[in-house]
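User: Before I run my own analysis I want an independent prediction to cross-check against. Here's the chain; please return only the structure tokens and, at the end, one sentence I can use as a sanity check.
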Amino acid sequence: MTERASVDARWSRPRHWCPVTDIPNRTADAASTLPLFSRRRLALGGLGGAAIVGLGAAGLALQSTRRPPAPSEALSVLTLDEHAIVAAVASRTCPAAGPDVPGADAIDVGLKADRLLARAEPEAVADVKTVLAIFESGLTGALFFERVRPFTQLDPDSQDRVLYAWRDSSVALRRTIARALSSLTTSLYYGDPRTWPGLGYPGPPDHEALRRAYVDQLVDLDALVAPTTEAS
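Assistant: Structure tokens:
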């Protein structure tokens, strides 16, 4: 196999990271993904971690982030650049799965992330911002001989390659960041009811409707408790 064919085979994977059969898991509360961004989990406290954080910050200062159209509402927590980074990741992890399914851009996952972080603890917000800076930076990419341009400035195919490279990396930090970004964007995307009809997902169960449907089979737990007898 030629080197060109080997590379093409390596990256010829499904671009939709979130299989339809996994939708019930993806609709879980997106807030549960925020611990994946913690500095403790990412082991950013050491000198190596500090160097990577520094590179990420410097990269954002030296190279501009390509922004999509401005969000429809004002951002509360994220900057326009950070919104753009989330939106760029989401457009690759959750593109439109079919003609009747809106993609992440139409849902504006970046704005959803901002609304989620507006309810989060300040430490969690800082952690997410740090991860976004690290992932976007062209200097961080250069450190791993991967790229020299910010993630948002890459074409879609190159963005896919970057995401797969981080996901499959031998470096735990890169794998953890890829998982955190994928989990956050997919949970926000599949948590939006607009994505469900076109994918054939009926949505989370209606517990009240289930109670009405099976009213004859419900058990009164209080009635099962043996009555206590008063001491004579």
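Sanity check: The two ends are 90 Å apart (CA to CA).
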